[in-house]
Amino acid sequence: MEKEKFSKENEQLASFAKALGHPIRIAILQMLAKQTCCYHGDMSEILPIAKSTLSQHLKELKKAGLIQGKITPPTILYCINKKNWTLAKSLFNSLLTEENNFENCC
User: Fold this and answer.
1) Does residue 98 sit within a domain?
2) For residue 48, is the peptide bond before it cis, meaning its omega torsion is within 30 degrees of 0?
3) Per the domain annotation, does 4 fall within a domain?
């Protein structure tokens, strides 16, 4: 029997989950979800991390597609990627509301 391949949805959900796997990334998303957009420099003044570390976390969130950035020299304006944010909510909701048979579990 051939092994099953992961679905596109499973791959996408894993990418979102990986991006959410650090508390500072959660804080970044919470900050961006409360406002339209935010400049990198403004975030670095609020969050308790160095600018270079913030840049790395923003890069991971952008790579996963959860945020998007617009270059406005000399800084970058970040905001939530609404399309992928909606997709992430849907995929996580689907995973977390699946019917499970926990009664027969150890």
Assistant:
1) no
2) no
3) no
